[in-house]
User: Fold this.
Amino acid sequence: MPSDSFPTVRLVGVGAALPDPCLHNDDLSQLVETSDEWIWPRTGIRERRILPPQLSLVDLATQAARQALAQAQVHPQELDLILLATSTSADRFGSAPQVQAALGATQAVAFDLTAACTGFVFAVATATQFLQTGLYRRALVVAADVLSRTVDWTDRTTCVLFGDGAGAVVLEREAAGLSPLDKPQGILGIELRSDGSGSELLTLSMETEARPLVGSLRVGQYRCRPITMNGREVYKFAVQAVPEIIEKSLFRAGIPAEAVQGYFVHQANQRILDAVAKRLGVDPARMASVLEHYGNTSGASVPIALADWVEKGRFGPGDLGVMVGFGAGLTWGAIVFRWGKS
Ligand code: UT7
Assistant:
C-alpha cells in the first residue's frame, strides 16, 4: 500500500465527545495520597473528564459519531459499516448496534472490536479492508472508553491516569472514475502488532470464582477486576515499540518522517510523546498532545487528538499524518494517511 490494485480509502471526517465534569489533580489528592506535583511532571496530565453515571458509553460514542458525520457531510443512512472500538462497554455482547440505532444508520452493519488503547487503530485498519475489497463504500469508526467505571479509585498508580471520552472518524472509498491525482491519497500504510507474552502488564480482567451448582457439578462465575498496570514496564515497551512501528510504517509507505505534519500517538504520558519525537528526530510541535486536559482516554485518545488538531486548523486537507496506538494485549499499530478529500 498504496497500490494501483487497491482503491483509495480516505478519512473524511472526525469528531470527539468529552463529558463536562472535570476532575483536577488537586481533587485526586482528596482520594489517594498523590499531588499535582507528582502527577503533572510525570505524566503531563492536569485534569480528566468523568462521564456522569446517568450517561452511557453509547451516549458518548453517538455524540462523537454525529460530529464526525457532520464534518464529513455523510448522512447516517449512507453508512455501510460501524465499528465501535471499546474495552469498557456495559454490554459485553457488544454496543455498536446501539450506536447504529441511536444514529439511525439503518443500512449499516455494526459490531464491537476490542484492542485496548490500540482499538481505534485496529478498527480503522479493519474498516479499511472492508472498503478496499469493494464490499462497502462508507464506514464509521468510533472509539469510546469510560475507564472511570473500571479503575480502582483507591489505587493511586492507575486512578490518576485515566479519563473518559470518545472519538470517531468517517472513512470513504473513492468513487470509481475519478481522475488520478498526483499524490497518493487516504490510507497509505498500516502496521499492526500484538504480543500476548506481555498480557500481564496491563489487565482489565474477570476473575473466575468457582461455585457449586448441582450435585457435584461446579461452575465458574465471572467477577470484574479493576485495571492493573505495571507502569514502568509498559513505559519501557512504549518508548521502544512506538518509534519502531512509526519508522516501519513510514518506510513502507515511502514517506520521510519530516514530511509528516501530525503525529497522533496514543495519549498515555507526555514523556512518552517527547521520547518518541526525540527518537524519530521530529519537531515535538508535530506531536499532538491533549493529555493535559483529558488524561489517558484509552482507545479514544487518538481520534480525540486528531479532532482537536483539525478543529484548531493545525491539521488540514492534504496533510500527512500518522496515528499510533499502543497498550494492553500487548498490542500496537500505526496508520499513515493523507487527511481529507483533497
Ligand atoms: O494506556 C496504556 C499505556 N499506558 C502507559 O503507557 C503508561 C506507561 N507508564 C507510565 O506512564 C508511568 O510508568 C507512570 C506515569 C504510570 C508512573 O510513572 P513512573 O515514573 O514510572 O513511576 P513509578 O511507577 O516508578 O513510581 C515511582 C514512585 C513509587 O514510589 P516508590 O516505590 O519509589 O517509593 C510509587 O509508589 O511513585 C509512587 N507513585 C505515586 N506517588 C504519588 C505511584 N503513583 C503515584 C501517585 N502519586 N499517583
